[in-house]
Amino acid sequence: MPKRTSKTVRAALVALTATTIAATAIGPAAAATPAAAATGAESHAATQAALNGLVAADMPGVAAGTLTPKGTWSGSAGYADTATKRKRTAADHFRAGSITKTFVATVLLQLEAEGKLSLDDSVEKWLPGVVKGNGYDANKITIRHLLNHTSGVHDMVYTPEWNEQMNGQGFFEHRYDIKTPQQIVAMGIKYGPDFEPGKGWRYSNTNFVLGGMIIEKATGKPYAREVERRIVKPLGLKETSFPGTDPKLPAPHPVGYSKLYVPDPGPEIYDATEYRPSWSGATGEVVSTSGDLNRFFSSLLQGKLLPKKQLDEMLTTVETGEHYTYGLGIISRKLTCGVQVYGHDGVVWGSLTGAAGTRDGKHMLTFNINGDWLNESPPFENMFEGEFCGALPKTAADKPAKETPAKKTPAKNAPASATAVNTLR
């Protein structure tokens, strides 16, 4: 997810109809519960305080896991299921949304290292005729532009079609639909470019759907199979999967609570756990756990997945106008204590995820919230501050988040940490 500002915006694209929605509404968020700490809980007091703060900000539940040279730690607050009071745990599987982008970028960089493509190849070279019309010239859009969101290709998430079919009532009518990458791309490029390639920055999920299509063109295999072959299996990420058209999550998993990205939502919260992730594809399909994602990012940052040249390219970031910079499928944050961390955020229906680690890959954090309407930035960012700085910012410590009035227009390029984001951020 890209960042916006310290202020948040509810990405509201449609109003819920008065029609009865075929989902179960739940009550208020559960109170914070003690951490399920493994060892060394005292050194993660600020992280636990940040977990508690997320639940105090009216999220249903949150679980986090860390990886350091001293071992692992896990903590939680709130509930995986507010009806049964089942607690969140480090074993939970969750939809990690846009963290998929880092996997996709890694495979494309591996292909570059193998001489099978160049980041400066045009989209037209690999996908002739796919991006055309409405002011687009795919000869001027490169793979690098796709990976760092400088392509100008319009985000399919911010279209009337997406809004109608995947937000509000439309989610329940269409969540089991199957979409091809070509259909998703066509939804975005129906609308003209946001800017000329290389002349701006805007987060666009369409970029990574195109990236997945290029992987398939270069290898002859679907992007997910290449990610599994090149990353998941070698690293032993046994809890990580790319479910394709399977709408279910592996056990154990939390209920995914959602407000369905509608304007000015009421108190109603719905179960959005199941849907076919072909809607997300190479921009947001991955299902994983905190342990697997910590292992992935740690291995990536330590150079176990990419040669130095390609890793340096990945970590070369561009300005976004937000509180973070963006590399090739990766977010870089500079925290208040001066520590720089690298990772990605992920937002899909019923799930908010954050993952980041230090440049040497030795200190990692992944956390997941089983709700998608967080609309105060500090509680989300406090997770990184707590873990990597050892304290919450004084202005934010021990302060529950307050409900912020929704703006009428969505943030086009804001990550979970900065906004109440639309899906797939």
From TrEMBL:
Ranges of residues in domain Beta-lactamase-related: 55-354
Region of interest (Disordered), ranges: 395-425
PANTHER family reported in the protein's UniProt record: D-ALANYL-D-ALANINE CARBOXYPEPTIDASE, D-ALANYL-D-ALANINE-CARBOXYPEPTIDASE/ENDOPEPTIDASE AMPH
Protein's UniProt name: Serine hydrolase domain-containing protein
InterPro entries membership: AmpC-like (IPR050491), Beta-lactam-related (IPR001466), Beta-lactam/transpept-like (IPR012338)
Residue ranges, compositional bias (Basic and acidic residues): 396-406
EC number: 3.1.1.103
Swiss-Prot/TrEMBL keywords: Hydrolase, Signal
SUPFAM superfamilies, per the entry: beta-lactamase/transpeptidase-like (SSF56601)
Biased composition (Low complexity): 407-425
GO molecular function: hydrolase activity
Enzyme class, UniProt record, top EC level: hydrolase
Top-level taxon in the UniProt lineage: Bacteria
Signal sequence interval, chain numbering: 1-31
Organism: Streptomyces roseoverticillatus
